[in-house]
Amino acid sequence: MDESILAALRSGREAEAFDLLVNAYRRRVYALAYSIVRDRQGAEDVAQDVFVKLWRALPRYDGRAQLSTWIYAITRNASISALRGRRPEVSLEDPDVLVAAEAAAAEAAGGPAPRDAAELDRTLARLVAELPDKQRQVVTLYYLEERSCDEVAAMLAMPVNTVKTHLHRARAKLAVELGPAMAKEAAA
Question: For residue 43, what are the domain limits?
């Protein structure tokens, strides 16, 4: 898809290139923004801002970085800027917050462990959301976006070894957290 976008750019068809870019990257931009701002509305706002920036900058794209790396860098920077400009808000009206609160309450009360794949997925999503910011971003890009360590490093502007360290620490933390849930599930 990137080749189609670049071909349209080279031939001066910026509007077509932008349409292709939006279709190819809208979900990925939103997912990265969400992994950083951790709020649906905030992620939608960031994604919209990113695409406005991309529309303005697309004619000047010089190809020094891969198109995806360039887009992710803009998304990361816009997401971080959005975080700086807001104060933390938590509402039980947010379905993600409600699920996390119910899961935490059930866990604190010695409630049941996840019994099916969907519950296990929700538990894993909650645990990933609770990871420190950098670990959560690396896990999201590496596993959900299926990016290599090198690509994640370029997208997050950090050394490859730092990406690997964040992945290692996140895996260890998730293994510890999932251990009791998996043990309870196996016993059920």
Answer: 2-84
- Token representation of residue 80: 């971080």
The answer to whether residue 90 sits within a structural domain is no
Q: How far apart are the first and last CA of the chain?
A: 46
Given a cut of 90, whether residue 45 has pLDDT beyond it is yes
109 or 143, which is more confident?
Answer: 143
113: in domain: yes
pTM: predicted TM-score of the whole model, two decimal places: 0.55
80 in the same domain as 54: yes
pLDDT of the residue at 187: 46
Structural domain tally of the chain?
2
142 and 60 within one domain: no
pLDDT band for position 19 (cuts 50, 70, 90) = very high
Examine the domain organization and report whether 8 and 56 are in the same domain. Answer: yes
Cα 72 from Cα 104, distance rounded (Å): 32
